[in-house]
Amino acid sequence: MTANDTLTGQLDPIFHPNSVAIVGLPRGMKTGKVFLMALMDQNFSGAIYPVHPSAEEIDGLKAYPSLTAIPAAVDLAIILVPHPHALPVIRECVEKGVKGAVLFTAGYKETGTEAGRKLEAELYRVAKAGGMRLFGPNCMGLYVPKSGLSFFPGLSKTSGTVGFISHSGSLANILGRIAADKGIYFSKAASLGNECDVTGTDMLTYLGNDPETTVIGGYLESIGDGPDFLSALKAASRKKPVILWKVGLNPEGRKAADSHTGALAGRRHIWQAVVKQGGAVPIKGFDVLTDALMSFSMLPEGIGNRLAILSGPGGMAVSAAEACGDEGLRLAALSEQTRSDLAEFVPQTGTSLANPVDVGLGASLDIDIYIKAARALANDPGVDAAVVIGAGLNRELNEKYTNSLIQIHRETGCPFLMVNIPGFEKEFAAAFCQAQIPFFETAERALSSYAMVRRYQLWRSRQAD
Amino acid sequence: MEILRKAYSEGKRRLSEYDAKRVLSAYGIRVSREALTATESEMLDAAADIGYPVVLKGCREDLVHKSEAGVVRTDIRNEAEAKASYTEIRDAMAPKGGVSVLVQEMLGGKRELVAGMTRDPQFGPAVMFGLGGIFTEILNDVVFRIAPIEPQDAFEMMDEIRGRRILDGIRGMPPADREQLKAILIAIGRMGLDFPMIKEVDINPLIICDGQPVAVDAMIGLDTTGNGQDS
Question: Under an 8 A CB cutoff, do A227 and B146 touch?
Fold first, then answer.
C-alpha cells in the first residue's frame, strides 16, 4: 500500500461519515450551533450525537455526557470546546476510535504564543498515535453535499465535481453561498485553519486522486512544506486543473541578501516559479476565482481557439473581438452557409454579418434574431465556441432567449460564453449557469477565462505521462 | 567540496570571486581564464601568460562591490598599464587586509546575462535567470524556478524573460548556446541541493562569447546561521 492509498483511506471515511458527534454543542443560539444547523439543513442522513456535560437533549437530539458514552461508532467529531479542554477530548476521540476530527476553536498557534504552539503540537501527537486525522484548529471544517456534511446552513445541497481547499473559513463559506447561482457545485470543500495535521499539500494529493473531483480550487495564505507542496501540485495538475489564489505575495526581496539573486527573489517571483513548475492556474481575486471555477467545470475537454462573437450592442462586439486577440484567440472565419443563413433574418442596416456578428438593436425586440443567429453559429463547423452578448427588452423576451439558447447548447454541444448586458434578470443568468453554460459580467472576463482553460488544456496535453 | 567546507567552518560569509569560480568550474560551468596572484611580478607573468588585454581585480572575500571599491581595471593592454593599475588596486586594498589580484582574460562578448540561486525559506533553492550587468537592477527582467531544475524548466526560463531575443543570433552575433545555458541553470540548482551551506549564488555577468556562456564574475554567499551544517 502506497502513502497515497493511505491518505485516501484515511480521509475518505471522514468526508463520507456515517455518524457525527458535535462535542461542546451549545444549547442556546451560540456560534457553535451553526454546525448542527448546517447538518440539519443538509438533511445529514447519518446519526448526529451532541456531546454536552449536562444536557439530556439538544434540539430534539439525545445528548451524551462524553464521546465514550455514545453507544455506537463515531466517524467524525466536530470539536467546539475552548482550547484548554481540547486535549482530553482528542484523547477520548482516540479511545472511541473516531476517524477524524474538525477543531473549530481558535487560541492555538495563530496567537503567536509558545503555549498555543505546544498545545497544537500535542493535539497532533495524540491524534497521530491514535491513528486519527485532524482538521484545524481554527477552521470551519468540511462541506460535502453528497454526504450531507456542511459547515454552515444555506449552502447548496447539490453535489458537483469542484474540490476546494481554503485557508479562510469565511471565504469558503461565501464561495459556497454564491456558488449555486454560478452553477458551481462541490464534491468536497475543506477549511484548513492552522493545519496542525491535514495540510493543503495533503488535500491537493487527496483531491488529485479523488474520483469525485474534476477541478481543484484553492485559497492559500501560507504554505508550510514547500517542496512537498510542489510535488503534490505537479501530480495533481497533471490529472485535473488546480486553480490557486495565493495571498501574501508582497513584492519585496529579502533584505539580508548580498546577491542580486537574493535581492530580486520576491515572494511573487518564487510563487510564479512554483505555479509554472507545478502546472497550477494562478488567479487573483474572488471574481476571477468564480469565473475560473465556472469555466473549468463547465467547458469541455479540447476546446479550440476559433471564437464567434454574437452581439446586439456594437461596442461590446468590438471590445469582445479585441479581447479575443489579447488572449491569443482567433475570430472564426464563418462559412458561406452561416453567412447566407444570417442574411435571411438579420436586418441589413446597422448590422454586420462578418465575425463579430452584430445583430443590432432590433434583436432586443425580435429576440428570434439572437436565437437563430446563435443556432447558425453553433452549427458552423469552423466555430469552436461562441461569445453571446444579448438581452431582450423585457422579462418575457429574456426568458425565451434563455430557454432557447440553453436548448441550442444542448443540441449542438457548442460551448457558449454568455455575457451580461446590465438589466438582464439574475434568475436567467443563474439558469444559464445551472445548465452548465458559463455566464460572465463582461466579454473580457469571458474570454480571459476561456483562454485560461485552453492554456491549461494545451499545457496538460504537452506533459509526458 | 573542500573550498566550501573550509570557508563555512571558518564562519566566512562568502567565497572570494576566485574560489566561487572554482566551485562553478567543478560543476562544469565555464569561467573566465584567470590566475590569482600575490605579487606584482606574479601578476605580470600571469598577464603575459593569459595574453593582453586583461582585466585586473582585487580579490578578497570581503570585497562585494568591487567596482565601487575601486579595485577593478579593465582592458589593460600592456605591461606599463598593468603596473600602474596594480599600484592603484594595491593602494585601495592594503588598508583593510592582504593584497591579492586576479588576472583575467578580457572577454569580448556584448551580451550580459545573470544566473543565480537563492534559498527560499519555504521552497528551498530557487534558481534565477535574466538580463545581467547593469540591466539586472534597472530592468528586473529575471525569472525563477525551484530546484531541481529540469531541462524543460531551463528552456522555459530562457523563453520567459522579456529580453529573450538577446539569446537569438542578432547583429551578426551567433545565437547563445541554449544547451550550455540549460546545463548552467541545472548545475546552479544542483549546488543549492548538494550544499545546504550555500545561501546564494550570483553569476553576474554571465557573458555570451561567440555564443558560449562564460562566468566572468561570481559570488557564493554562505549561511552564517548554523543551518547549513547537514552537508
Answer: yes
